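Let us work through a complete example step by step.
Step 1: write down the sequence.
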Amino acid sequence: MDDAQAVRAALLRQWQRIEASLVDLDLETPSRVARWRNREVVAHLAVQPSLLARFLRSASQGPAVLSLAASLSGTGSLAEVIDASVRASRDEGLDFGAELRRAAPLIEAADLSVTVTSIQGPIALEDYLRTRCVEAVVHGCDLVPAVVPDPEALAIAASALTAVLAARRADLVPAAEALAPLEWLDQATGRAPPAEVFEDLLPLMT
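Step 2: predict the structure and record it as tokens.
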């Protein structure tokens, strides 16, 4: 299930679920993200397909420098930049569906063995797709009402955050794996209070 082709397919399905949810979404409703309404969450999500397409246009066979765990861990350092970018773009009429339809053919045709240069640095495309699954599932669930995650995308996202945990406290991986995937995802990203065993460690990212 968790090979590169399956990850790509799960990400696209998750994005399609998000697109379908936007038809009746009230953009002014507060989301699960502090100080963000649904409008800000959608603005953040809308740039993801086009950003991936942009990275693919300059993909190479060069070495990846950034690991999956390092990429996810590093998002915290970008929080202020992301928030400012979202607030600047939220009223520009970004159309998530249009962005997805433009990007999808390039994503579907991509060589999954390449390296892309993300904002944080060169990363294997397969790993970058996993980070996008985390973003799509977590922020889909941040919308109110939440987007019910694609089951495979949810499993991929939960596994990716378990990889971050393994890099910090490998001994706690069994405790994470004992949780339901959505429960683990919510705790790992600060959407829900952590279980006692994780109190000094979570959230892994926000």
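Step 3: interpret the result. The chain has a mean pLDDT of 91.
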